[in-house]
TrEMBL record:
Domain Carbohydrate kinase FGGY C-terminal: 253-440
Native organism: Streptomyces qaidamensis
GO MF term (any one): glycerol kinase activity
Gene3D superfamilies given in the database record: 3.30.420.40
Stretches assigned to the Carbohydrate kinase FGGY N-terminal domain: 69-242
Protein's recorded name: Carbohydrate kinase
Family statement: Belongs to the FGGY kinase family.
One cellular-component annotation, GO: cytosol
Amino acid sequence: MSAAVKSYAAVDLGASSGRVMVGRVGPDSLELAEAHRFPNRPVRVPEGLRWDVLGLYAGVLDGLRAAGQVDSVGIDSWAVDYGLLDADGALLGNPVHYRDPRTEGVAEKVWATVPAEELYAATGLQYAPFNTLYQLTAARSTAQLGEARRLLLMPDLLTYWLTGEQGTELTNASTTQLIDPRTRDWAYDVASRLGIDLGLFAPLRQPGDPAGLLRGEVLEETGLAGPVPVTAVGSHDTASAVAAVPASGERFAYICTGTWSLAGLELDAPVLTEESRAANFTNELGLDGTVRYLRNIMGLWLLQESVRAWGDPDLGALLLEASKAPALRSVVDAGDAAFLAPGRMPERIAEACRLSGQPVPETPAEVTRCILDSLALAHRKAVQDAQRLAGQAVDVVHVVGGGTRNALLCQLTADACGLPVVAGPTEAAALGNVLVQARSHGLVGDMTGMRRLLVNTQPLTRYEPRGGTERWRAAQARLAGD
């Protein structure tokens, strides 16, 4: 292997599993291999739904051991959740899961102090009941928050355990609803009015900043020879995934697919209009001064939960049957908060169809087709709305993440949007993580250079739209009650 090629460990934590990937990067080469994959199973305890963060950390250590010697480590994860540390730096209890019901009704209390319109104008974040701002408001009177001296978002917490260094990476911080996307700094006025102590947060870090060295105990446990640096990456997994969109031009939309679908545009500045707020678009921060202007859609969570309810049948066979089911027979709002909680997903989808006067899907194939048609319809609406609200037209839709394995969803998305879909890479978040580390070592250049390397090295599949968009327009109108 050429001396110019370096190896990077990308710790990529999703809502249902974690993985440690090893990226080998040279000036004209990019290879990614899985070193270790482990489950991420939340645990319901008497006080609510919690993350098994110790199990996650053990998985990270096992992954680094399996990865072998690397030149750097980077961590990305899902957004909004955090751990609290006491004055000695010890974790105060298991981090709360964003699906825990503690934030029910909290938004209205926040809006009584900072109206929703003002909150959006200041932070640019779409309403989601689990945003960190609402979580902190819900936790205000708890003993844990009273004892806390530091708050670390999930990837920053794991980085702290690996290195002993504390920081708050900016792309993930932008999901807290406590960052001003214009200044790329804290929204001090919002925090002050809501009584949130920004002193709990460690100093902000940028993607590419050094985040410390692996501690001696970590080196001993993983068998790595030090020093091994940890590099701050786009630690919100969507920020890393968008960095790995293999776009060769600027007129593109992206859909980061997995448990969630995050559909939108990459912009130079936030869109903070009241119309944008009403459309529930968010302005999260990306690499190199960019803004991820996107809408959160429930995503493949709907299918994951349904498959679980059916006893985990063969997914390939299920998708084949779904492809033969009647198109757009029944659709649901894939962004509806009614689908947020786990459990009984097929019954809840059937009930939503019944209540809206549509045919009720009965077989697993019919439910699956309803889900995928509904997701494609939600993708269509998000891409259309983003273009209109940002005043930026697109020629192609890039689908990255786990949904790239679902050829039916990719084709339906192309059909619904009336635009070509380029699917890949599947492990976009890990690749974006690796590329930011490689860039910090001078192996790749700016975002254009990163994306050129992806286009030249990653397998991509192109789906052309079929059949016109009239039936999708009709289904969209039906769902809206028009």
